[in-house]
Design the sequence.
């Protein structure tokens, strides 16, 4: 999904905000400004014990503490630059699939605060519409069509074809084998790689999804006499 002009403008606002923060931080820690800041802090400082006691003056600020402050500030500036590059990539390329979108959110949870939840919802809605136009109903759409709009699903489009039912306590049921097949097809990888990815990135997260978490079912082979 390519971004429209409005969406690009919203992302540019986020980029500008991060860029301005980066500029402010790096300006503050530039040699001239930083040295002037330290000089101002130490303007009324003294190491004379008598003056400390009689005049209420304070000792010089610890350079160790100041250096830690500077180090932390520059790390924030570097993080601003990193986020700007990610946003520029999104503005230029958009999102190819829902998987790309969900993956970006998982790796960069700060996108919600940087772009706004309304813009992210717009991205998600657009990607789902594109998928539906391709005659591939999403798992969410299948559940809605069958009256299960409140059921929690696995937000990975390669799992949509693995949805096989709903439990009596309204939990989505997925076939593990079909999840592997869908991941292999979507990501052009081996069965082993797909299984390892699902085990590590999806199954490990299910215990934290609450009481309505989806069920992943391992199908048993028929027992022959």
Sequence:
């Amino acid at each position: 999904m390519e971004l429209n002009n409005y969406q690009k403008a919203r992302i540019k606002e986020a980029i500008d905000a991060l860029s301005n923060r980066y500029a402010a931080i790096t300006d503050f820690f530039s040699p001239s400004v930083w040295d002037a800041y330290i000089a101002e802090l130490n303007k009324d400082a003294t190491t004379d014990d008598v003056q400390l006691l009689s005049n209420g003056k304070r000792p010089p600020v610890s350079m160790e503490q100041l250096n830690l402050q500077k180090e932390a500030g520059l790390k924030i500036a570097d993080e601003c630059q990193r986020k700007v590059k990610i946003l520029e990539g999104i503005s230029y390329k958009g999102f190819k699939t829902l998987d790309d979108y969900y993956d970006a959110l998982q790796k960069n949870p700060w996108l919600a605060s940087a772009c706004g939840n309304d813009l992210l919802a717009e991205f998600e809605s657009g990607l789902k519409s594109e998928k539906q136009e391709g005659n591939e109903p999403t798992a969410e759409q299948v559940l809605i069509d069958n009256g299960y709009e409140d059921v929690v699903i696995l937000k990975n489009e390669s799992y949509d074809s693995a949805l096989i039912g709903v439990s009596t306590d309204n939990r989505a049921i997925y076939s593990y084998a079909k999840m592997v097949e869908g991941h292999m097809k979507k990501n052009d990888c081996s069965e082993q790689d797909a299984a390892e990815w699902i085990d590590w990135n999806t199954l490990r997260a299910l215990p934290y999804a609450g009481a309505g978490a989806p069920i992943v079912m391992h199908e048993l082979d028929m027992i022959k006499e």
Observations:
- The chain has a mean pLDDT of 84.
